[in-house]
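Q: Please design a sequence for this.
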């Protein structure tokens, strides 16, 4: 049984529309990704998540654009997002729009996570693939650019976030990132996230339409009831790891016992979803490591211990493999960014 998560055509159509808007021929790209035009024209159509990732890969090769995600997000016709775009653009504030985006997310992807954490000074949008896996570079930059583009349309204000985080390593050139976000960017962070100050989130939308957004909410809620969320096996394993990874060293055998399956079943189930126990453990450790090292009260040695590494050298090697940087160097950079971030948030 194939447990691979699927996405709806609502996620594919905007990318295709943006490629066409930039003058690219997409038929060959779609054929190589095994996505048919007939499927895209079906409102209830769905494609495997792996097909969407292949579409991104082939589009990057065909276009030769090293900033593909950013450029597609700037070029995509807003109306190609259908109910999502109309509902967000009709929301009373940017805060309401981002809340609505999280509610509607399951209409696009059956297992992806889009969360919006609201704090006393700012809100944080976060996105992750099934099982908590970070988003690859170009779709991640597509999403973050869209968050900013839609946010500026909704507020009528050319604002900038206070911090943007990506899981992927720093590209050779970040000139386009600087142009679009105009904010500190933390690469190799283990996640895709954007920090927005509260005064921006609470800006009134001059085009708000309470009647339209109420109608669209009812329509979207009806669609959500027809598409109950399916929890992937990777998500179950990741949830278990989150509870276990606190100074310990989780093993596949202990995970299998906790989830009441054999090691072989656990391995095959994760493999069918495009991941593995080791990959999930590494991803979670990387996320935890980058967060711990950004905390001025946590030393490099303490971070390694809390992540279950018996020796500091093992932690250092693993962290350099994840991020391309030594823990101490990453910590110094993260603390410098945090200082700038805090200054901007309090300004």
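A: Design:
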């Amino acid at each position: 049984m194939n447990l691979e998560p699927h996405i709806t055509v609502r996620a594919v159509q905007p990318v295709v529309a943006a490629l066409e808007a930039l003058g690219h021929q997409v038929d060959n790209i779609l054929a190589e990704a095994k996505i048919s035009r007939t499927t895209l024209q079906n409102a209830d159509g769905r494609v495997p998540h792996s097909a969407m990732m292949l579409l991104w890969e082939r589009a990057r090769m065909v276009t030769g654009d090293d900033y593909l995600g950013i450029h597609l997000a700037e070029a995509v016709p807003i109306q190609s997002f259908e109910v999502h775009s109309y509902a967000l653009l009709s929301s009373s504030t940017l805060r309401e729009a981002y809340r609505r985006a999280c509610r509607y997310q399951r209409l696009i992807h059956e297992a992806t996570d889009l969360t919006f954490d609201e704090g006393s000074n700012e809100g944080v949008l976060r996105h992750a693939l099934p099982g908590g896996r970070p988003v690859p570079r170009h779709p991640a930059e597509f999403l973050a650019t869209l968050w900013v583009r839609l946010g500026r349309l909704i507020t009528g204000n050319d604002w900038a976030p206070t911090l943007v985080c990506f899981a992927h390593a720093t590209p050779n050139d970040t000139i386009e990132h600087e142009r679009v976000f105009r904010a500190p960017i933390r690469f190799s962070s283990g996640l895709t996230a954007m920090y927005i100050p509260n005064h921006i989130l609470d800006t009134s939308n001059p085009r708000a339409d309470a009647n339209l957004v109420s109608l669209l909410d009812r329509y979207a809620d009806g669609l959500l009831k027809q598409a109950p969320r399916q929890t992937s096996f990777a998500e179950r394993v990741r949830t278990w790891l989150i509870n276990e990874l606190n100074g310990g060293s989780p093993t596949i055998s202990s995970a299998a016992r906790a989830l009441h399956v054999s090691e072989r079943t656990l391995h095959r189930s994760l493999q069918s979803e495009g991941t593995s126990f080791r990959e999930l453990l590494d991803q979670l450790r990387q996320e935890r490591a980058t967060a711990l090292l950004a905390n001025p009260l946590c030393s490099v040695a303490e971070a390694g211990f809390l992540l279950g590494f018996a020796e500091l050298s093992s932690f250092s090697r693993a962290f350099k493999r994840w991020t391309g940087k030594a823990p101490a160097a990453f910590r110094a950079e993260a603390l410098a960014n945090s200082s700038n971030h805090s200054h901007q948030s309090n300004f």
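Q: Thanks. Anything notable?
A: Residues 327-346 form the longest helix (20 residues). The radius of gyration is 21 Å.
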